[in-house]
């Protein structure tokens, strides 16, 4: 029997949704019966439009969903820069701009949307832009070189992204929004005010309730006219005032169009013509357009299902819940956020000082309890992963719903994982439910830890925001079923951090190799290596970059600076107690100016210099050190700051010298490595202006001396410190604080803050017995350990700039140390680069064992890694999740897979692990980075041809 004729499927549009459709069609076998032709109007393949702002940092290749320019399936043809001008439904023919006709059996329209530009005078002037494509951003960047002040018209999601882009380009930035608040569709007035305050602290200016009347200027932009307000002096304008469906082809073909635009489709996403389908922003299911990418992805799957001829897939609407970070601020909106239900009640928690606003919308049930209808979170969206799945679940909330949003220590119940229904989506990135997580650790499941659950189900493997929820679900399930929670540090060490600390101390180990050989297995990983590095630093007081120990250091310690999302670093000199001289302020300003750094005063009374390139760090610190400043250890799990008020020296209410004590304590404990970061505070009176009770250790002055509080912290889960001892003399205070800190350093778990350690170890009463009453007889030992730390302190950055061996790691490219990094300008060329003979990049001995370097090869950033056994691997250096050229800076380790140790690098950005052999992400096998042929010839590392990795 002969095979039926193959059908012709044409897809018009190669944006995110069009690409997702083709992916699904290939993965689900539609190309077994169909030849697919994809027509994209843009000159480049589909790319991540959601992350468009990061284009300035990482380049087009890093954003591309198809960097090689073609699909692997030969039955898919991609044609770019191809415009469709007409559809003839009766003949099933489309006509291209050049006059070519293409026949189709089925046609999928994924033409997306276009930016809406209000019809105001001056909208066509030079230096007026929209914010939609890479070409738009290229034009904005070119114009910004001669501009000083920019305005974004529109304060929604895209408008704030555009404002972030202008801010990154160094422009003074205004956000002009017609509505009375930012993000008017997602959040209410109070949340909008909180968001505006956050944004304005970054130096942007927000104008809400402002109508744009005209863009001013004759040829170029010179200003912006606002109704009933003074005009703004700007020389660049970006319109980001919403989008409209690109439905012109459908209109011309007499397809049914929704009242407010968009091609009308049924629940199978079929248009009024039975052979034409529409998906994404150009479609209007039920007459409504969806401007988010997730509904478009769902539509793509529905159409593939229909074309395969089976299933009951239907698009019945979309969850428009949103959680994102805008200009560094966490914002989330879910369900009925505006209390539209007539019986809705609102539960609100607001902390204007901390910049946090949380609202739950609830409805009383007949039983007297409450169900969750929706909510808004600004400044702290950590509860989103638990709250959103409760909407529509029918689950009854606790008797006091406010407990779900109150900070720890103010009546919050702690975990809410037990509230989640089994079908609750815990990980929205990978569509993993609570039931799937529980199944993975239930009897017959494959997992015995949260880390294993992440590897098996991919929950928490992408953005990481749900990792704490995943961990709590696992722990709660173990507790409910009587199983013991595995407290092992990782797969390489079957012991806790406290047990490992004692092993290292008793045996006097000084090298990771000896520790893992004697008490572990394999070659370690990104979990145990930083923990061992911290333990060694606490016990030996050496430089963290000494010898092989440099390869153990986590993201920030590895380069003595805080890694930012774009691959640059922040620099924070120590200002003890917030005290700084005018001369030092001048030097900080000059350094920021000369190196083009963004400056911001931190909550810890210091000055943060952001945007420093890796290769510039030594030069920056040389100038700071020469001016008498030292490392602020903002990069380490160590003491950060001891914050203070002005105390009795200046304040009329002060009863003690809080500044003097804060300076003394910060200089005493500076450089102390610990399981997690440490922060302190000293207030000169009971008015508590230094917020000491929000710190790991806080001191509040009394008429008789000092009260010592311990176990507080800010952050996502704030906790109030508790009183350890009161009315202490200076010497008593220092003695108890020495003991407390050393007791914490020795006994806390990996990455455990003092607040959770305090609760797990037996509460403040237990710690008081050890620290104040010396119930264990450890007092002298703990004090001696602290004295040794104080006596052995040295400034890590001064020691680094005086040591050529340590300075050698601060280069952009191992084979081109003078070239700037990241090499954004070169990444466009990487697609066309094919190296057949290879490029010699460095000597093998220039790559430290179990670490990486980055080389410039044919215009591309290539990460070269060397394992403990001297195997060499090469990967593309761009992290596909964070879109920054940083993989070479990750920790190299091994993990057991199928009874073999797989070498991997853990990205320093979000910690995803990538197989060094294949480039495949071990946490999310659908994601991969390209690999390169690499070999060692006569002691020289030679990088050859690029290989595109096929993810599973």
Automatic annotation (TrEMBL):
- Which N-terminal stretch is annotated as signal sequence? none
Q: Domain (Rieske): give its ranges.
A: 839-943
Q: Which Pfam families match?
A: Fer2_BFD, NIR_SIR, NIR_SIR_ferr, Pyr_redox_2, Rieske_2, Rubredoxin_C
Any one GO molecular function term: flavin adenine dinucleotide binding
Broadest EC class assigned to this enzyme: oxidoreductase
NCBIfam families given in the database record: nirD_assim_sml, nitri_red_nirB, PRK14989.1
Its biological purpose is as follows:
Catalyzes the reduction of sulfite to sulfide, a step in the biosynthesis of sulfur-containing amino acids and cofactors.
Similarity-based family: Belongs to the nitrite and sulfite reductase 4Fe-4S domain family.
The protein's name: assimilatory sulfite reductase (ferredoxin)
| Lineage summary | Bacteria, Bacillati, Actinomycetota, Actinomycetes, Propionibacteriales
The protein's gene is named nirD
């Amino acid at each position: 029997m002969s095979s039926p004729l193959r059908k012709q499927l044409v897809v018009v549009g190669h944006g995110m949704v069009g690409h997702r459709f083709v992916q699904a069609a290939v993965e689900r076998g539609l190309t077994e019966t169909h030849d697919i032709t994809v027509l994209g109007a843009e000159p480049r393949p589909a790319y991540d439009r959601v992350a468009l702002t990061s284009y300035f940092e990482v380049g087009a290749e890093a954003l591309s969903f198809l960097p090689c320019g073609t699909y692997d399936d030969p039955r898919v043809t991609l044609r770019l820069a191809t415009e469709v001008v007409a559809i003839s439904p009766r003949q099933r023919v489309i006509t291209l701009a050049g006059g070519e006709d293409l026949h189709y059996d089925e046609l999928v329209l994924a033409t997306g949307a276009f930016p809406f530009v209000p019809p105001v005078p001056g909208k066509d002037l030079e230096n007026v832009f929209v914010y939609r494509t890479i070409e738009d951003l290229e034009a904005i960047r070119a114009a910004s070189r001669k501009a000083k002040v920019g305005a974004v018209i529109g304060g929604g999601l895209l408008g704030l992204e555009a404002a972030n882009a202008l801010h990154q380009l160094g422009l003074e930035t205004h956000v002009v929004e017609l509505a009375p608040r930012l993000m008017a569709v997602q959040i209410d007035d109070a949340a909008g005010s909180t968001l505006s305050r956050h944004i304005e602290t970054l130096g942007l200016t927000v104008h809400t309730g402002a109508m744009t009347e005209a863009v001013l200027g004759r040829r170029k932009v010179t200003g912006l006219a606002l109704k009933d307000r003074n005009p703004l002096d700007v020389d660049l304008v970006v319109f980001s005032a919403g989008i409209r469906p690109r439905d012109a082809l459908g209109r011309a073909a007499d397809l049914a169009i929704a009242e407010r635009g968009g091609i009308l489709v049924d629940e199978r996403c079929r248009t009024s013509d039975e052979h034409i389908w529409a998906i994404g922003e150009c479609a209007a299911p039920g007459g409504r357009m969806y401007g988010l990418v997730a509904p478009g992805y769902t539509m793509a799957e529905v159409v593939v299902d229909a074309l395969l001829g089976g299933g009951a897939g239907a698009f019945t609407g979309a969850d428009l819940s949103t959680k994102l970070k805008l200009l560094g601020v966490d914002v989330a909106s879910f369900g009925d956020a505006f209390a539209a239900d007539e019986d809705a009640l609102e539960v609100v928690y607001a902390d204007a000082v901390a910049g946090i606003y949380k609202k739950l919308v609830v409805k009383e049930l007949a039983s007297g309890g409450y169900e969750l209808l929706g909510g808004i979170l600004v400044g702290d969206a950590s509860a989103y992963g638990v709250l959103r799945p409760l909407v529509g679940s029918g689950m009854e909330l606790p008797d006091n719903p406010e407990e779900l949003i109150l900070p720890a220590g103010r009546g919050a119940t702690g975990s809410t994982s037990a509230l989640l229904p089994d079908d609750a989506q815990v990980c929205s990135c990978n569509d993993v439910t609570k039931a799937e997580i529980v199944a993975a650790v239930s009897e017959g499941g494959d997992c015995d830890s949260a880390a294993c659950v992440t590897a098996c189900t991919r929950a928490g493997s992408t953005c990481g925001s749900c990792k704490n929820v995943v961990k709590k679900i696992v722990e709660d399930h173990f507790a409910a079923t009587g199983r013991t929670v595995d407290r092992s540090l990782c797969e390489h060490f079957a012991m806790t951090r406290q047990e490992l600390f004692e092993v290292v101390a008793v045996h006097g180990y000084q090298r990771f190799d000896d520790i893992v050989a004697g008490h572990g297995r394999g070659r370690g990983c990104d979990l145990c290596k930083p923990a061992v590095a911290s333990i060694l630093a606490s016990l030996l007081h050496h430089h963290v970059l000494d010898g092989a120990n440099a390869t153990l250091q986590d993201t920030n310690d590895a380069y003595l600076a805080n890694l930012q999302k774009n691959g640059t670093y922040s620099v924070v000199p120590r200002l003890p107690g917030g005290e700084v001289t005018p001369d030092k302020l001048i030097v900080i300003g000059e350094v920021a100016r000369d190196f083009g750094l963004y400056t911001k005063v931190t909550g810890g009374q210091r000055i943060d210099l952001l945007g420093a390139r890796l290769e510039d760090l030594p030069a920056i610190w040389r100038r700071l050190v020469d001016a008498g400043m030292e490392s602020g250890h903002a990069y380490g799990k160590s003491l950060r700051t001891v914050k203070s008020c002005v105390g009795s020296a200046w304040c009329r209410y002060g009863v003690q010298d809080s500044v003097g004590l804060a300076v003394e304590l910060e200089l005493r404990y500076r450089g102390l490595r610990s399981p997690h970061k440490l922060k302190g505070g000293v207030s000169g009176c009971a008015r508590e202006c230094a917020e000491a009770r929000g710190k790991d250790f806080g001191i509040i002055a009394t008429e008789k001396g000092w009260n010592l509080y311990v176990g507080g912290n800010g952050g996502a889960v704030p906790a109030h410190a508790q009183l350890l001892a009161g009315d202490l003399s200076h010497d008593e205070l220092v003695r108890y604080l020495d003991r407390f800190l050393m007791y914490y350093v020795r006994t806390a778990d990996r990455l455990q803050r003092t607040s959770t350690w305090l609760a797990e170890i037996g509460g403040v009463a237990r710690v008081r017995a050890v620290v104040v009453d010396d119930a264990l007889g450890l007092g002298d030992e703990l004090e001696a350990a602290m004295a040794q730390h104080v006596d052995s302190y040295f400034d890590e950055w001064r020691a680094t700039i005086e040591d050529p061996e340590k300075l050698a790691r601060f280069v952009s490219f191992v084979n081109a140390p003078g070239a700037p990094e990241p090499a954004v300008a070169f990444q466009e060329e990487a697609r066309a680069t094919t190296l057949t003979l290879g490029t010699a990049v460095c000597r093998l001995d220039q790559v430290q064992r179990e670490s990486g370097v980055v080389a410039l090869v044919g215009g591309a950033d290539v990460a070269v890694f060397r394992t403990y056994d001297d195997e060499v691997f090469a990967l593309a250096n761009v992290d596909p999740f964070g879109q920054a050229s940083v993989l070479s800076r990750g920790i190299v380790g091994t993990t057991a897979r199928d009874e073999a140790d797989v070498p991997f690098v853990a990205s320093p950005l979000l910690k995803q692990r990538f197989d060094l052999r294949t480039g495949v992400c071990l946490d999310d096998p659908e994601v991969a980075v390209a690999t390169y042929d690499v070999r060692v010839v006569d002691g020289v590392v030679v990088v050859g041809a690029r290989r595109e990795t096929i993810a599973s």
